[in-house]
C-alpha cells in the first residue's frame, strides 16, 4: 500500500487508515521521528477530509488524535507532535480574524502543501544539533552513550568527522528486540568504528564499572517533559544516577519538537502502564488474572498497558541532567517549561 | 595632567589619553595593556573596552552600519585575542555589536518575527510572565529606553520586546548560519521565512509594525542619527558597568540579616559596597578570606583603608569609601587555610566572580572553589555578586581553557632561591553551577539555572562566536 493511496482516499477517510498512515510513514523512513510522523499523518488526514469550519476541523483533529494515540503502546512521543500541531492550529486561528474563511483556507493550504517541508525541517534540526553537540566532544575525551537515538548517532558521527578531535565511545548496548537480531545502536557502533573511532560496547550492567573512564554521557530522548526531565529508553535513568554519583556531565540530546507537556513526578507517573516490575509466585495464573483486573482499572484512568519489551521507557529527572542540547542551543532543564508555556498559554 | 609621562600605564592613563591619540594607536595601546595585564579585573577591562569602542563608533568613517559592525567586530576580535581570559572584554564587544544591530535594525527581522510570534500566541509583551519584566525592560540592547534607569526603577510601560529565544544558543562554537528561532512552532511555520522558526504571515500587518519598518528604513537612511543613538546606548552601557556595584548593593538588606556570620571571598569593590550598604541597617560579622597570593594585598588594603590600593602607593588615592569597621561591621580577616575551619560558624558566603558563564558556573580568584566546596559541605548558602557585564555567553565546554598561571613572585622569596623546585600560581578557579545558590546582579537575584535567559536577553546570537573562529 503506497502512501499516496492512503491520502487520496477522498471524503470518507477511515480513521483506521489514518493509523496505518502513521505506521507506514514511520517504517518507510528510518530517519523520521514519532512526533513528526504524527504531524505528517495529521496533515494527510486533513488534506483528505475537507472541512469548512474551524470548530469542525478541531473536532475532527481531536478524534484523529484520539484514535492515533489509542493505536500505539507508548503515545508520549507521538503526543508531542499532535499537541504541537493542534496548538499551532488553534493559536494561528486565534490571531486571525474570527470568521474569516479565507484565512482559514490559507492556513489549511499552508499546512497541506508543506508537509514535506516540516519533515525536512525536523531532519535538518538533527544536523544542527549534531553541529552544536560536536563541540561538546573534546579532544581526548571518552563519551558514554546508550540506546539507538539517531540524533546521538548523528552527533557522534559529526564529531568523528572532525580531524582535530580524537575521542572514544563507550556504547551501552541493551538486549536485542528479537533473539538473533542486533541490539539497538549497533549500526551507529559500526559507523563510528568505520570512521576510526574506538568504540567499546558494554552491557547495561557494566555502566558503573566503566564510568571512571568516561568524561561525559550523551543520551537521546523520546520526550523531554515540562520540568526538564527526559523520557528515554529504559536504563537511561540509572545511567543518569550513576553519572551524577561520579560527577560526570550528563547531556540529553533532543529536537525541540520532542518537548511534551507532561509533568511526571516519578517513574510510575507516566501516562503509560509498563509491566517492568512484575511480581510472580509459583502459581502464575492467579497473578496474571490479578494483573488483568488491575489493568482494567488502570486503563479506565487513561493509562495504557505496555508490556516489558524493548520499548519500555523510564524518566530521568531534571536534577540529573546537565544540559539539553536542542537545535536552538544548549538549554538548562528549567528552560523547557518556558518553551512549552510559550505555546500553550 | 601632571607627570603624565611617568604614570604607570593602566586604566586611568588609557582613558585620559583616549581622546588625544589616534584610533589605531589607542587600539594598540589597549591591546598591549590588556595583554600585559596592566588593565585587569572585569570592571576595568569593561570600561576600557567600552571607552575605546565608543570612540570608534563616534569617529567612524563608516558610511553604512555594516561597515561599522565589521569595524567593531574586527577590533573586538583583536581585543579578545589580546586577553582571552578576561571574558568581560568579549562581553562588552558582543553587547556593542548587539546594540549596533538593534539600533540600526539589522537583523531586526528576527525581532519582528518574534513580535509576530507573540501575536500568534495571542499575547503581547505586557502579558508576558511577570518574571521577565525586570529583565527585558532593562535590557541594554533596548535602545528605546534612552534614559538610564536604575534596577529599582519600576517597570517601564512600554511593551516588552523580548529578544528572540534563539539567542540562547550560547556556546563557544559556530552557530548555524540559518537562524533557528527558538519557537516550538518553528517546525510548522510558513515556508516564506524558511527555514527559520516563524509564525505564519498575517496579511494584515499591525499598523505599529509597519511604522516600525518605516522607522528602520529612515534610520538606515541617516547613519549619523544611528551612530548618535548607538553612542547613547554605549554610554548607557558604560553607566551600567560603572553603577553595577551600587545597584547590586541596593538589595543588600534583603540578603543580609542581623547577626549573620558572612564569609566573603576577598573584599572586592562590589562586595565592599554590598556589605557597607547592609551595615547601615544591620549588625553582622564578616570573615574576609585573604585570597593570597594574588588578591591578598588588595584585600588587606580594602579592610585597612577602604581602597584596594594603600595611600602610600604612588598612584593610590585616599579611600573615598568608608572602611567596613567604621560602619560598625565586625570584620575578621582569615587566611585561606582557615576556610574550612571557620565555615561551620558561617551563615552565608559571598563570592565575587571575575566572570559568570552561561551555564551558571563562575570563574573567580583561586581558592573560590575551596570556599564553595566547604560551603556545600556545611550546607551554607552561597551568593555570588556580579554585574550583568560579567555574564558571558560562553559555555564552559572545557574548563582547562580557563587555566592561567600567574607570577610566582608572591609565593615566598625570590625565585632564584628555589633552585629546581617548581613554584606554581594558578590564577582562577571554576565553580560549578551546583555550588552556587544565587546570583545577585544589577537586575536582581537569579538562580544559576536562570542565567541562560539573561544571556538570551543581552547578547545577539550572531555575536556569540566572536573571536573563537579566528
TrEMBL record, chain A:
Subcellular locations according to the entry: Cytoplasm, Cytosol
Gene Ontology, cellular component aspect: cytosol; eukaryotic translation initiation factor 2B complex
Keyword terms, alphabetized: Cytoplasm, Initiation factor, Protein biosynthesis
An example Gene Ontology molecular-function term: translation initiation factor activity
Pfam family, one: IF-2B
Taxonomy, superkingdom: Eukaryota
InterPro entries in UniProt: eIF2B_alpha/beta/delta (IPR051501), elF-2B_alpha_N (IPR042528), IF-2B-related (IPR000649), IF_2B-like_C (IPR042529), NagB/RpiA_transferase-like (IPR037171)
Main location: cytoplasm
Keyword 4Fe-4S in record: no
UniProt KW Protein biosynthesis keyword: yes
Quaternary structure note: Component of the translation initiation factor 2B (eIF2B) complex which is a heterodecamer of two sets of five different subunits: alpha, beta, gamma, delta and epsilon. Subunits alpha, beta and delta comprise a regulatory subcomplex and subunits epsilon and gamma comprise a catalytic subcomplex. Within the complex, the hexameric regulatory complex resides at the center, with the two heterodimeric catalytic subcomplexes bound on opposite sides.
Family: Belongs to the eIF-2B alpha/beta/delta subunits family.
Name of the molecule in the record: Translation initiation factor eIF2B subunit alpha
Species of the source: Microthyrium microscopicum
From TrEMBL, chain B:
A molecular-function term among this protein's GO annotations: guanyl-nucleotide exchange factor activity
Bilayer-spanning residue ranges: none
Keyword field: Cytoplasm, Initiation factor, Protein biosynthesis, Transferase
InterPro entries for the chain: eIF2B_beta_subunit, IF-2B-related, IF_2B-like_C, NagB/RpiA_transferase-like
Protein name: Translation initiation factor eIF2B subunit beta
The keyword Plastid belongs to this UniProt entry's keyword annotation: no
A cellular component annotation (GO) from this entry: cytosol
Amino acid at each position: 500500500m503506497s502512501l499516496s493511496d492512503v491520502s487520496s482516499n477522498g471524503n470518507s477517510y477511515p480513521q483506521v487508515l489514518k493509523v496505518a498512515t502513521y505506521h507506514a510513514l514511520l517504517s518507510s523512513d528510518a530517519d523520521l521521528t514519532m512526533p513528526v510522523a504524527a504531524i505528517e499523518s495529521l496533515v494527510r488526514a486533513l488534506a483528505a477530509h475537507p472541512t469548512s469550519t474551524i470548530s469542525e476541523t478541531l473536532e475532527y483533529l481531536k478524534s484523529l488524535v484520539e484514535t492515533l494515540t489509542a493505536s500505539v503502546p507508548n503515545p508520549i512521543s507521538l503526543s508531542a507532535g499532535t499537541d504541537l500541531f493542534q496548538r499551532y492550529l488553534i493559536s494561528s486561528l486565534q490571531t486571525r480574524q474570527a470568521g474569516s474563511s479565507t484565512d482559514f483556507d490559507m492556513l489549511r493550504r499552508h499546512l497541506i502543501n508543506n508537509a514535506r517541508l516540516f519533515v525536512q525541517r525536523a531532519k535538518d534540526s538533527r544536523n544542527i544539533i549534531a553541529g552544536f553537540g560536536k563541540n561538546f566532544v573534546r579532544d581526548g575525551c571518552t563519551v558514554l552513550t546508550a540506546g539507538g537515538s539517531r540524533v546521538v548517532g548523528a552527533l557522534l558521527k559529526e564529531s568523528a568527522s572532525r580531524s582535530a578531535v580524537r575521542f572514544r565511545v563507550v556504547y551501552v548496548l541493551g538486549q536485542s528486540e528479537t533473539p538473533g537480531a542486533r541490539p539497538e545502536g549497533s549500526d551507529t557502533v559500526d559507523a563510528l568504528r568505520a570512521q576510526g573511532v574506538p568504540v567499546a560496547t558494554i552491557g547495561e550492567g557494566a555502566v558503573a564499572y566503566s564510568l571512571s573512564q568516561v568524561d561525559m554521557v550523551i543520551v537521546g530522548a523520546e520526550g523531554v517533559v515540562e520540568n526538564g526531565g527526559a523520557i528515554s529508553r529504559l536504563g537511561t535513568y540509572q545511567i543518569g544516577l550513576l553519572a551524577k554519583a561520579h560527577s560526570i556531565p550528563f547531556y540529553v540530546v533532543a529536537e525541540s519538537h520532542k518537548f511534551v507537556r507532561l509533568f511526571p513526578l516519578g517513574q510510575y507517573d507516566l501516562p503509560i502502564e509498563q509491566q517492568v516490575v512484575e511480581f510472580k509466585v509459583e502459581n502464575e495464573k492467579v497473578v496474571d488474572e490479578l494483573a488483568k483486573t488491575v489493568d482494567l482499572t488502570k486503563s479506565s484512568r487513561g493509562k495504557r498497558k505496555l508490556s516489558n519489551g524493548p520499548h519500555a521507557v523510564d524518566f530521568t529527572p531534571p536534577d540529573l541532567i546537565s544540559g539539553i542540547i536542542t537545535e536552538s542551543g544548549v538549554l538548562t532543564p528549567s528552560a523547557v517549561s518556558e518553551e512549552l508555556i510559550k505555546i500553550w498559554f | 595632567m601632571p607627570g603624565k609621562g611617568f604614570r604607570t600605564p593602566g586604566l586611568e592613563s588609557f582613558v585620559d589619553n583616549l581622546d588625544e591619540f589616534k584610533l589605531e594607536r589607542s587600539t594598540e595601546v589597549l591591546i598591549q595593556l590588556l595583554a600585559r595585564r596592566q588593565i585587569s579585573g572585569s570592571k576595568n577591562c569593561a570600561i576600557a573596552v567600552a571607552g575605546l569602542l565608543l570612540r570608534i563608533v563616534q569617529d567612524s568613517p563608516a558610511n553604512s552600519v555594516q561597515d561599522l559592525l565589521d569595524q567593531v567586530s574586527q577590533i573586538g576580535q583583536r581585543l579578545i585575542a589580546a586577553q582571552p581570559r578576561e571574558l568581560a572584554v568579549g562581553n562588552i564587544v558582543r553587547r556593542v555589536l548587539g546594540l549596533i544591530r538593534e539600533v540600526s535594525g539589522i537583523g531586526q527581522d528576527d525581532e519582528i518575527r518574534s513580535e509576530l510570534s507573540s501575536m500568534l500566541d495571542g499575547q503581547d509583551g505586557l502579558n508576558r510572565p511577570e518574571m521577565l519584566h525586570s529583565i527585558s525592560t532593562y535590557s541594554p540592547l533596548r535602545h528605546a529606553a534612552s534614559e538610564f534607569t536604575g534596577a529599582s526603577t519600576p517597570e517601564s510601560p512600554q511593551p516588552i520586546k523580548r529578544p528572540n529565544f534563539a539567542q540562547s544558543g550560547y556556546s563557544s562554537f559556530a552557530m548555524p548560519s540559518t537562524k533557528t528561532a527558538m519557537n516550538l512552532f518553528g517546525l510548522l511555520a510558513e515556508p516564506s521565512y524558511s527555514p527559520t522558526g516563524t509564525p505564519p504571515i498575517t496579511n494584515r500587518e499591525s499598523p505599529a509594525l509597519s511604522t516600525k519598518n518605516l522607522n528602520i528604513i529612515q534610520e538606515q537612511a541617516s547613519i549619523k542619527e544611528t551612530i548618535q543613538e548607538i553612542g547613547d546606548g554605549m554610554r548607557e552601557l558604560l553607566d551600567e558597568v560603572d553603577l553595577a556595584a551600587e545597584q547590586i548593593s541596593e538589595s543588600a538588606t534583603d540578603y543580609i540579616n542581623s547577626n549573620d556570620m558572612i564569609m566573603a571571598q576577598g573584599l572586592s569593590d562590589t562586595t565592599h559596597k554590598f556589605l557597607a550598604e547592609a551595615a547601615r541597617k544591620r549588625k553582622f560579622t564578616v570573615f574576609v578570606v585573604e585570597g593570597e597570593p594574588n588578591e591578598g594585598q588588595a584585600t588587606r588594603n580594602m579592610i585597612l583603608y577602604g581602597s584596594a590600593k594603600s595611600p602610600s602607593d604612588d598612584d593610590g588615592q585616599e579611600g573615598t569609601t568608608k572602611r567596613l569597621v567604621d560602619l560598625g561591621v565586625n570584620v575578621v580577616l582569615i587566611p585561606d587555610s582557615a576556610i574550612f575551619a571557620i565555615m561551620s560558624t558561617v551563615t552565608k558566603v559571598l563570592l565575587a566572580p571575575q566572570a559568570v558563564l552561561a551555564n551558571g558556573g563562575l570563574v573567580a580568584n583561586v581558592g573560590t572553589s575551596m570556599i564553595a566546596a566547604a560551603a556545600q559541605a556545611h550546607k551554607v548558602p552561597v551568593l555570588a555578586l556580579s554585574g550583568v557585564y560579567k555574564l558571558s555567553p560562553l559555555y564552559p565546554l572545557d574548563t582547562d581553557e580557563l587555566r592561567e598561571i600567574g607570577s610566582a613572585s608572591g609565593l615566598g622569596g625570590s625565585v632564584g632561591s628555589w633552585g629546581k623546585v617548581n613554584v606554581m600560581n594558578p590564577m582562577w578557579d571554576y565553580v560549578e553551577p551546583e555550588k552556587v545558590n544565587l546570583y545577585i546582579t544589577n537586575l536582581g537575584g537569579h538562580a544559576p539555572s536562570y542565567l541562560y535567559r539573561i544571556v538570551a536577553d543581552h547578547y545577539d546570537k550572531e555575536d556569540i562566536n566572536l573571536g573563537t573562529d579566528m
